[in-house]
Amino acid sequence: MTGWAIVTPVKPLGQAKSRLRATLPASVAFLSGPDPLGALEAPDEPGDWHAEVALAMASDTVAAMLAAPRVDRVVVVTDDPVAAAALSALGAVCVPDAPGGGLNPALRHGASVAALLGGSDGRGSRGTAALGADLPALRTADLDAALRAVERLGVRAFVPDAAGTGTTLLAAPGRTPLDPAYGPGSALAHASAGAIDLTAVADGSGVGPSIRRDVDTAADLAAARALGLGPRTAALLAPIGSAFPAGRAAC
After folding, report:
1. Fewer CB near the last or first residue (10 Å), C or N of the chain?
2. Which positions make up the binding site?
C-alpha cells in the first residue's frame, strides 16, 4: 500500500462560512489585490473579504494535507472556479460537485473519484478520509498521527471537533466505505454507525488539537490563532492587528 486519499469539500466562496461572516466584521484595513504571499486570487466578488478568508483557510488546510507524509492525494469537490484554480495550483485534484445535493453526496462523489484515481495509479490505496477545508491551524504531524491510528485500528474512525459534537476527520482504511454522515450531531451519528472515536481510544491515538479546531465563528478563529494559523490565513488577517498572529512555525 501507499498512502491516503483525502476528500475535502469547498463551498462557493461567496456562500462559504455564513456563521463566520456574521461574527467576523470585515476588516477596514483590508487592501484589495494579491495577498502578501502571492498565493491567492481575488474572488469573483470584489471586496468580499470574508470570501478571501474562506479561500485562505482552505488553502492552508489543503497545503497541510498535501504536506503530510501519509497523504498521497487530496481531492477537492467544489463548483467555485477561483477555489479550484487556487487549490489545483497547490497540487490538489479538483472536481465539480456533480451531485449538487449537499455535503454528504459531495463527499461520496469525491471518494468515488479518489477510488478511480487510486485504481489507475495506486496512490491513495491505504484508505480514504474526509477532512474539512476550515482547519487553518492544521499541522501535518497531527493529521499523520490520526491516520496512523486508523491504520492500527483497521476500522473506520473519526475525530470529533473541538466542541465534541461535530466531525473534522472521518477515515476509512483500505476498501472500507467512507459512509459520511455529516450534519448536526455528526460525531454521534458516526459513532452510532460503528466508527471509532479516536479521542476515546485508551492511548489517545495521538490526536492533536489542530485537527479538531475547525472554524465556524470568530471565536473559533481566535482559538485557531492560539494554535498558530497557516501562512495564508495569518497574512490575510495581519492588517487587523494584534488580534491575530503573524503565523506559525513550520510543521
Report:
1. N
2. 167, 183, 186
Greater confidence (2 vs 196) lies with 196
Amino acid letter, residue 111: A
2 contacts: CB under 8 Å, gap ≥ 6: 72, 122, 123, 124, 125, 126
Cα(237)–Cα(203) distance, rounded to whole angstroms? 36
* CATH class label, 4-238: alpha beta
Binding-site annotation: residue ranges for phosphoenolpyruvate: 167, 183, 186
Global pTM value = 0.85
> In terms of C-beta density within 10 A (0-12 exposed, 13-18 middle, 19 or more buried), how is residue 178 classed?
buried
Tell me which H or E stretch contains 167: strand 167-173
Domain spans, the chain = 4-238
Side-by-side strand order, sheet with 4-10: 93-95, 71-78, 4-10, 127-131, 167-173, 157-160, 196-197
Smallest CA-to-CA distance from 7 within 127, 119, 90, 137 is with 127
Residue tagged 474512525 (cell numbers): 157
